[in-house]
Request: fold
Amino acid sequence: MLRLKNLTKVYQTDGEPFLAVDDLSLDVDQGEFVVLIGASGCGKTTTLKMINHLIEPTSGEIWINDVPTKDTNVVQLRREIGYVIQDVGLFPHMTIAANIEIVPKLKNMDKHKRRERTRELLELVNLDPAIYEDRYPAELSGGQQQRVGVLRALAGDPDLILMDEPFGALDPITRDQLQDEMKDLQQSLAKTIVFVTHDIDEAIKLADTIVLMKDGVIVQAASPQEMLKNPANDYVREFLGEERLVPNADVTPVSDIMLTEPLTISQEAEAAEVVSKMQKRGSDYAVIVDSSRRFGGIVTAHDIQRKGVKGKALPQVSDRRAQAVVDTTTIRDAASKLANGTRLLCVVDRKQRPIGLVSRTALLRGIVDLWDGSKNNDNPVNETWS
Amino acid sequence: MDQKITTIQLTKLGVDTVFMSFLEVLIDRRIDVLFAIQEHLVLVFTPVLLAAVISIPLGILATRYRWVEVPVMNIANIFQTIPSLALLALMIPLGLGIGQKPALVALFLYALLPILRNTYIGIRNVDESVKEAAKGMGMTYFQILYMVELPIALSVIMGGIRTATVIIIGTATLAAMIGGGGLGDFIVTGLGMVRNELILLGAIPAAVLALIAEFALGRLERILTPRGLRIARDS
Reply:
């Protein structure tokens, strides 16, 4: 989706050339959350700002959806890329709605459609449009302002969003909330995000891929789990911090402890067929999937026996206390869901396809293994559920 | 004791006499006064409007280009340092002679700086983050200027116009020294003939004009300040 090819940026400071970004190449997939991280001066912000040409690369190319950006008009290009900065930069003389509608307005979108979309967006982050659309930035808290900053970037419906330390100026509790909301938004809207931060905990929490930079080059690019498991060198190890390298429930994903290859059944399947499949697999549970193999609920044998009437659609008899989580969800987050009444978690990949199940038993076993430090990361716990 | 009372009474009587003769002259020469006020307004608004037309674009350019900023700000500063009477008098050796025209030129030069300076400061003070966001979202150079920078700077620019107007209303009374007309004519004549009521006939309307301008333009400034900025400023 986004491809950086041999990007280089040389600054001239007092006549001395300074190599800020050095022959950097990176591929970002559609829907991927990439976090650029590193000490200050490592070139992460320069890299980000080269993507929307706020900084012109000295050499190298940027391709978005297989088109090199230097062939596009830079103003048009920026309207197709969301941009969120640390200091928010809301326009103080415009209402919240007007702020959100800037890009749609620049793109000449119909006035009523614009306002409709603004209201949807405000509701997405739990800001009541009736209360907030006519307010001014000065009337909002820091956290609310940055929520609007994020909405403003989403308003033009860009595929790609660039975020430059967006939560850096917020207090820890607000930051935590916005991170959660951001991750949810990104997953539900399937946006590609390039995010700059210097906060490793933020990177671990949000990233699909962490790109650790030093002196303008990439030291390691990997998923948070992979980076924690196999840091490329001492610099990565030092940057991550020893305490994070020990496997723990805050960073280990549920995919490490889930029961793999769950029984899946089409949502059109007949009750009798489901029961027979369950018997063959010796399983009490089955994951319902739709025609594109996306998660549609979980049924138990008990559900079918009790409620299952012939002709009734499977999703209607599915267990209300089961829900889906993505494979990067940490064990801690999964545990809190299971502790709050959810009986069974279905682990899904980024395309919402089921890849495993986590029961309370599996979770407890996973936690015990983490405690013992005896867990073998390469072999997820395999058990036959009964 | 007696003497003291007499002095006070005399003083009181003196004031009354000046005031009475002022009213007398005012009623007597009301047409002249109205004419002088009209002349005075021309002496004020022509240079201020011209100065605004020149200074606002120059002020904006000065925030963009250092090679504009340095000479423009320095020259405007120099005009402001020259005493107003001297600047008016300088028009004569400069070949502009006497009358309304040289007065307009001198007052125009005098009005440049307040507007120029406020435009420059107003635009300069727009948050860097606001400008970065505007650019990053895909606004063109001119969209950033008229959708973001100018609306935010507008009240500061209006403040410059208000300051210039009030200053020029006062300074324009000196235009009479080079035959520029206006309310200053009464003052100059009054000084020459040692007739206080004539001095007042020029000075009082000039002071009232200045107060009205200050109030009206202050109101306008507030009306033109976007609501969001007023809230930001008050909180």
Chain B has one domain: 30-234. Residues 30-234 of chain B form a domain with the MetI-like fold fold (CATH 1.10.3720.10). Residues 18 and 197 of chain B are 6 Å apart (CA to CA).
